User: Fold this.
Amino acid sequence: MIVGDSLTYGVGATDQDSSIAGQIGANRPNDAIVNASTVGAKTKDIKGIIQAELALNKYDFIVVAVGGNDVVRIRSDMEAVVNELHDLIKFLGAIESQSVLVTLSAPENISVIPKPLLPLAKSRFDKLHSVASESTTSLNNVSYVDMSNPNIASYKSFEASDGFHLNDLGYSELTKVILRHAET
Assistant:
C-alpha cells in the first residue's frame, strides 16, 4: 500500500506508470499495489487512511509520505503535527507490515517556497525530520527515507515544472531508494 499526499499520489509525473505506485508495481509485479494517497493530505490524515485500508486487506509493505502539506501550509500547528507524526510512527511500529516513511525534501531545495519564508519552512521541516529520524531508529519494521540527504536531494534536476513536486526522474530515483529500504 502507498499512502500519503500529492508526492505519493504522483503529482508531477507524466503518467501513473512514472509515479511511485507505478514504478513499485513494475518492480514488484507479483504484489497488488493500492495507492490510497490523497492530494493535500496532512500527517493527521494518514493514520486513519492506513487503519481503514488494513481493515480491508493485509499489506506486507507500506510506503508512507507525510509532512509536505504540514510544512508549507504555515497555518498548521507544528506542535500538533509533531505529536501526530510520533503517533503515526508508533502505530506503524506496532503493525506487522514493513513500512517506509518519506518526508519532503529540505525546503531550500524546493523552488516554489519564497525566500522570505525559507527560515520558517526550514524550522518546520527540521522538526519533522528530527522526529522521523529519531523515532524510526529503534523500530525494526519502519525505515525513514531522509529526503534532505544530498544523495537524494539534488532536487533541482528532479523537480517538476510546478517547482514543488517530483518529475519522472525524481520519482524514479525516490522509488529506487524506497525499494532499497523495503529490502532491509
